[in-house]
Design a protein that fits this description.
The protein is of the alpha/beta class and 308 residues long. The chain has one domain: HUPs (Rossmann fold), CATH 3.40.50. It is built from twelve helices and nine strands. The strands form three sheets. It has a five-stranded parallel beta sheet, sandwiched between helices. A two-stranded antiparallel ribbon has the order 1-2. It starts with 13 loop residues before the first strand and ends with a helix.
Length: 308
Amino acid sequence: MVKCTACGAREAFYARLYSGEKLCVKCFTESIEDKVKAAISRHKMFEFNDRIAVAVSGGKDSLSLLHILVKIERDFPKASLCAITVDEGIEGYRDEAVEIALENYRELGVEHYVISFKELYGYTFDEIVKRVRGMGSKLTPCSYCGVLRRRALNAIARKINATKIATAHNLDDEIQTFILNIIHGDPFRISRSGPAFDDVKPGLVPRVKPLCEVLEKEVTLYAYVKGIRFQENPCPYAGEALRNDVRSMLNRLEEKHPGMKYMIYRSAERIREVFRDKTPKINLNQCKICGEPTIGEICQVCQILQNI
């Protein structure tokens, strides 16, 4: 029997190649929770009296984050925690995810809110994709979904008076975004896409990413060993995104060179620090149509809705 290198008592079940550790179930789950606590502390994500809205999609990452934050919150009675879910309206996919999310909310006793694209925009995402494809657009559905989801999360968080939105972006997501920003030639966006946002803008609820230092595969393993039910089917539109190719490349690198993902993440952090003071400040206007914060005269959401 191979013993856990952390406690030295129980049988190891997971080999963490990038650190050389062999961990038992208990020490593994505690290590994930400790990584989340460390990230929250390092990036000063929360204040003691925050009203935290956890963005829950029904997948492994968001439900693992919810379970971990519920556990952490018990030590901070003045903070309040709730969950928000966006129903985009993707037939055969999102309805199952919402059902699973609601099941977890009931199990944890978490206050929750659901907002739908249909309610907010007048269209389901399936209807939006159908119209956009009919126009011959070359943009992927993910390009539209990201913009619309961010607005929906901000709208519901503002409505319930949340002071922070906690999203479940893991370390893989963070370094994929870093690489994509380089591919798209947008270095200044690197400084605006970190684990926490300290440049608060009127009308925008600040977002934080407590899973930013946890590998995606370890989040998945955490969900399995904790018995968290989550949606396993991928979004039917996700296969069209460039992010998938970046993900595959990074997974191959990590397989050949364990620890490579953490090295890229630390590099991104150092580059972000250098760019922080050199990034032009963004002054937001009010959208002439909906009144929401935007860089230009008309926000991206209204442009999408006008086009369709």
